[in-house]
Amino acid sequence: MTAVPASITDGRALVDQAMRAAAERLDPSIRKVVAYHLGWTDEHGRPAAAGGKALRPALALLSGRAAGASYETALPGAVAVEFVHAFSLLHDDIMDGDRTRRHRPAAWTVFGPSAAILGGDALLALSEELLLDENTRGSHWAARALTAATQRLISGQSFDLGFERRDDVTLDECLTMAADKTGALLACSCSIGAMLGEGPTDLVTELTGFGSEMGLAFQLVDDLLGIWGSPDTTGKPVLSDLRARKKSLPVVFALNAGTPESARLAELYARPGPASEDDLREMARLVEAAGGRDWAAAEADRRIASAEKHLGDAGIDDHVRAEFRDIALFVTERDH
Amino acid sequence: MTAVPASITDGRALVDQAMRAAAERLDPSIRKVVAYHLGWTDEHGRPAAAGGKALRPALALLSGRAAGASYETALPGAVAVEFVHAFSLLHDDIMDGDRTRRHRPAAWTVFGPSAAILGGDALLALSEELLLDENTRGSHWAARALTAATQRLISGQSFDLGFERRDDVTLDECLTMAADKTGALLACSCSIGAMLGEGPTDLVTELTGFGSEMGLAFQLVDDLLGIWGSPDTTGKPVLSDLRARKKSLPVVFALNAGTPESARLAELYARPGPASEDDLREMARLVEAAGGRDWAAAEADRRIASAEKHLGDAGIDDHVRAEFRDIALFVTERDH
């Protein structure tokens, strides 16, 4: 397993501090839910350290550096993208009925769905508030881009919920969903610092492209891990995506591949009730035999190459480019 | 019953058109929920006409006129405040378990809670997007004010949910909750057009004060109607707030009045299980005997007077002032 890139660990403490300061603006009853969800406290409000890896803030800060902006200029963007990410996880866990998040009970199971709905709402509004605190052309640009990314995040989740009830999801639809649900906010994270720093439009465009492609690669790898990943790293039971009959990218590729294995996989996916361990192993074998595993791995590689191309075209200094590249490779690693 | 003021009916069609155009930006699966919730369609997607009275958009347009701004300048504000209002109702109905909204099944009962959560999220993001479409000082100001009002709306709802589990709610807390949950967005509605039109700060301040006081008066009257209103106008069963053991303003006044009736009311409110019709009638009598009804009526009058004072200090032309005043009197009428 590759070490966490320095650009993720370095800014972490400062971003964390800014996030906590921003959360002070929330009503205490809501802050309690948010602090738990962000891993700052346990369910009794006692200090904890269970946060995520804060990938999006690191990207936001890097994108500020890419535009030659100061750390302070990019910081509200770093906090805002992480808050939008937290908003979406809070609400998605309720909608998906997911009871576990980062090895802990999901916030809605601890505080109830109402508190989790409100916590998400408050984080969404707060993310905009932070960007609009400054009255600059850059903050307006960033706020505009963040609401657009949020809309795509919401569309992606809506699409995803619809997939569960359909047996005719195409690979294109599935890619669109992933681009909306995962790609849009990562693309915004990779460019928001440059917007706040009022960098050139071309730079913002290339960084957006980089983030978008990296986001798809990330989703493809996540989907591979959801079937073949070890429970130690994913924090989920083995074969969990198949257990949940999730229409992830490798599965949808396999379902649409037109092979005998595709037909058998469709049959198993359509069968009501929980699948046996034998069924789950067969499903995994079928996805692989129908080409889903190889396609997803190759597609992830293509997306990473495309992301690197955008990065090369962005015309940024070698250090910053190397750090962006390290993050892209780190989050799309398959063996961790 | 007084006729609906012309300023509410006049702009209605144009605001409606702008709202529909804005909703076109939403993903179809989400637009379906939003169109139903806003009364544009029935549960099968067929055209309907079941919307609310669009009070907030009328106030937003008026506030644009107060600042001498064009109709087009204030229009995004009119749509944005109505979308935030719609967002809050969509989410609140889920949290409160309210199955009826404007004489129809609430959206979450028709499309499910997940779709209603997403619909609300999308409306919240869209409201910001609409304001940020323009890159002006005024649109930045308006967007900032709307996110602040949204935070107060969320705090108010959180406070309100907490009230249900407490038997020691003070009148001050209850007034703060109402100011957050009802006052903040009305205050923003009454001033957002002036912000978009980049009117003077003093004007925005007075219009905000007007909306805030009108909002409290409106809540007081709504709470009176929730106990003594006729089901025909409220759209809810008689004595509905008491049935739901709601800690509304007249009730909280009565509970804190220190009279023998206060003690008996507290006893009835604390009793588990549904109340009998006799109990409900006794509760209403007790709220009145403990002074809750008279206090709420007098407090509403005081708030209306204070709202009028702000209006007088705003230095706006007589026509606009008269229209603001008509709306304030209309929404705080007790006999409709």
UniProtKB/TrEMBL annotation, chains A, B:
GO terms for biological process: isoprenoid biosynthetic process. One of its GO terms (molecular function) is metal ion binding. It holds the Pfam family polyprenyl_synt. It comes from the Bacteria. This is Polyprenyl synthetase family protein. Keywords: Magnesium, Metal-binding, Transferase. SUPFAM superfamilies: Terpenoid synthases. Belongs to the FPP/GGPP synthase family. The keyword Magnesium applies.
